[in-house]
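Subject: for your reference before the review

Hello V.,

The reviewers asked for a structural picture of the protein, and I figured it would be easier to keep everything in one thread rather than splitting it across files. Below is the amino acid sequence we used in the manuscript, unchanged from the supplementary table.
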Amino acid sequence: MIPDIDLICPTCAAPLKLTAGSACCDEGHIFPIENGLPILIDDEKSVFSQSDFQSVSDTFFVQPQTRARTVARKLVGKFLPDILLNLTAKKNYAQLATLLKQRSEPKILIVGCGDRARWMEEFVSHSCFNFVETDVSFGPRVQIICDGHDLPFADETFDAVVTQGVLEHVADSDRVVENIHRVLKKDGMVFADSPFLVPGHFAPYDFRRFTIVGHRRLFRSFTLISEGMSFGPAASLTWTMKEFAIALTPTRNGKAIAGFMVHILFFWIKYFDYILINNRDAFDAASGFYFMGTKSEKTLTDKQIVAFYPRK
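And here is what came back from the structure prediction:
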């Protein structure tokens, strides 16, 4: 269902009007509605095209071709031990929820909601929050198809924006964060969780990684609430071991078996992150970092950012 929220044209930022089969602005830009979802993609500026969604082609996510494959994929994901371990997500989402509950009917934008609410199940279950969930793929939770570089929402619309494992997949992360800053209310909050030392994934949409200093610089126009490791060095090690085993295997079936065996034999390594998660010496080998902050009218300089982090 299309959320009740003010939409703007991703091409010219004029207000959008929704009709039965399309969305259009007064400047004459027209966007299709497919499967009940507005496709608010600017063909000239995005790596995606409106036609990708009109033909229901694979975009960011590759959709399973059969129901049997969909069921098999879910079963494997349910019973196979995960090699990753996010030790801070539950705490961070609980903190964000606590802060948002102090507001009246807060609106929350999720940029890149994916096909499941991994690590944010309890957060998205809050009935007092109004969620707008977006992505560049069809999915059971997606309400609007849009590109994070040109978020189709009016200025100062949301109380919070959440982006989990997304900023490495956008061509211009600074532009995406600028858009996040724009659509947040004056006291709006952002929560981002982004990778540092992890192998490539979701190619070809994989552009960069972030040290904790680089992640803070990305959110230099926000006042810090909290930050730290989300995935520790052990998660980096297990994922890299899996990709190493896959790279050694020439056949497709062999790669699947190699990845499966690493999951089964070495998933336990991730639990060392319980020991390392609060150790700043482990930041240099962390798998990922989180940042929570409040929209600010001031922008930190690079000198201020570098001075904040002590040398070893």
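For the response letter, the relevant points are probably these. The chain has ten helices and eleven strands. The mean pLDDT is 91.

Happy to draft the paragraph if you're swamped.

O.
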